[in-house]
Amino acid sequence: xxxxxxxxxxxxxxxxxxxxxxxxxxxxxxxxxxxxxxxxxxxxxxxxxxxxxxxxxxxxxxxxxxxxxxxxxxxxxxxxxxxxxxxxxxxxxxxxxxxxxxxxxxxxxxxxxxxxxxxxxxxxxxxxxxxxxxxxxxxxxxxxxxxxxxxxxxxxxxxxxxxxxxxxxxxxxxxxxxxxxxxxxxxxxxxxxxxxxxxxxxxxxxxxxxxxxxxxxxxxxxxxxxxxxxxxxxxxxxxxxxxxxxx
Length: 247
What we know:
5% strand, mainly alpha, two-stranded antiparallel sheet, 10 helices
């Protein structure tokens, strides 16, 4: 009897989905586009956060991983500044790869603390390190600020596929996106009741494709890896050019 087949999504599939959703959000930010473009864009960041944590667990060389993030963060800074601030120099907000770099350093620090100290001492040290990462996210003005750092940390701490991990991811993403980030509210009517839906709360929908991931990498090559990194600065430059042409 053949084993029952189940639908899943690969790591490459998650990358492509997150990039498409991010593109929708950035189109809305730079060009005339309907509001739902930025709404669906809310789903992108948690997927990227999950992939970063997943990459940490599977990387063979953490220094190379950090080095790639640093290089592409530097490459992406001017395109991000042009898109976000309208000039090549915009010191008040930094691109998302700096968020990822800070998050990855924090995860490496937490791993070192947990391996070197007994749980009684490691727990408060880890909490202090997480709080420091949260504050640094705001101090450095990285994209998604300290909340973005904690979203990556969520997928590091709740990395398994048990119901406890799924529940932990759901609760943490709700607190981080709805309670801390908040933002625009949509008024909706449901069974005669008037409710308010937080736009950033749509980020929780990212858990659906994330939970469909079962460890398969899918397409994996240096060329695909380069495409994923280069897509970030390249699409921002193209959108800025398009915005200039239609202005």
